């Protein structure tokens, strides 16, 4: 089974899980067991599954056969090269291949001049008018090839203009630029490209990121701060005829590799091994030469040899198109695909599974608790009414008084609940005072002023360090408020469970650890690329300030935006079970009292009421069984997996 087939199996798993969640949402609505929050959460879960993306980044210097490798791994079934692949530079700007059904097939191109403004590519994605859109004729291979050549376009500008756009035209990088007799330098015409193409894999959520060389990576901070770190797999491509060049090593050390060696989802590809297929050498000699090259690359990159995959992308593509199994095996492409599957599909499935499971478990537990609370209240009513059989009016009055007393005690206990709501609101306000975006905006403004007013390099450095120090302190204080809220809700859950028999379980937990780690990563990047003596001396404060806020502060803001959304969801999730159970218990107590009143006033016969409640009991038991059946189907979907070891899809 090819990687494309395995990815299709993963997409089918995701679709099945989404369908089961939709069945649960529809059943809850049909049985009037949903509320606005539950319905919204299930709808969002289903939408996230439908819109789920699997990001694979290909990183290499020019002329390493990167585009051919993308064609060979993902698009051989198309029967032709989707991406242009020829000698020289075929991709000049970072390019995303994906599919958005709301748009027609096209190539969207962001002009390189947008680099002069303080906005990242993701910001420009909100403004389609800033992009040049070229229609993509998917019915014609020739027309498609012609349209895709736009990603190879260049423009010529003065060295000063190139410098302003982020291209450092200095002695160390002159060989990367084509400088004409007129003194103009050649730079990419486009800053970023998005190819919207209705290929089956792209329709299923695959997103391929093609990054063209050190110049593009080094000058587009979103690649190193966001796109590459968030990719589920990164393939770093070398050429067998050059090995690890100086520029390859620079990309690996600065943007791809990890100091500790192996990094999850990072694979090194030694491409173009067909250049070693010499008819004057034996097969063993050829294999030994390829093994030596792979070992040498592994040593330079400080990796175990098992992480370097020698392949011939061109021969692998030809073999797939011509169904030549012998050539495919010799290209070694299946070995790379197998390794990519082992890194990519299980890791992505685990992320989706964990995110879905935590949401589903909380919703399922809440709904089950609600039904069990109704059933317990109903059975208590049945027990009380059954005991009234053959009893005189005085016993009925006593029972009515007992339920009334219980109702009054619960309503008195509600004062504690209302007090908790008030404290909860106060703690929530304190939490968002630390975590909220208003606080971050204020810090951003004061940091900008401090950097622009800085008289010395040390002042600039201190301002950047202070920015991270304050944001880290805000997260630490937010963490304390989260712990305080959880501790309080845990205590009130237990108290109401013991005193009033509410089925509340344990309040949902929450952690800000992922955002602490994100701050660590961003500060590390800043200390490597901006807050260094070399950068502080080389660039003026205006330039450094612009780069800090365009590249670093923007990513910190996004991290805080995500933290705010997740925190708001948790606060709703932790309070909702309490609100639901309290409301349900009030309703049950009221019904019990009304039921005994009707018996006492002889407006309803005892046996009729017992029979009516028995029917309701049967219906509730059936609802619990139906809920269990739906939950079982979802759990089965969550537990099933795409088994790449045997290259087949199995259900555990």
UniProtKB/TrEMBL annotation:
Q: What domain of life is recorded for the organism?
A: Bacteria
Every Dynamin N-terminal domain range: 56-272
SUPFAM superfamilies in the cross-refs: P-loop containing nucleoside triphosphate hydrolases
Protein name listed in UniProt: Dynamin family protein
Organism in which the protein naturally occurs: Candidatus Proximibacter danicus
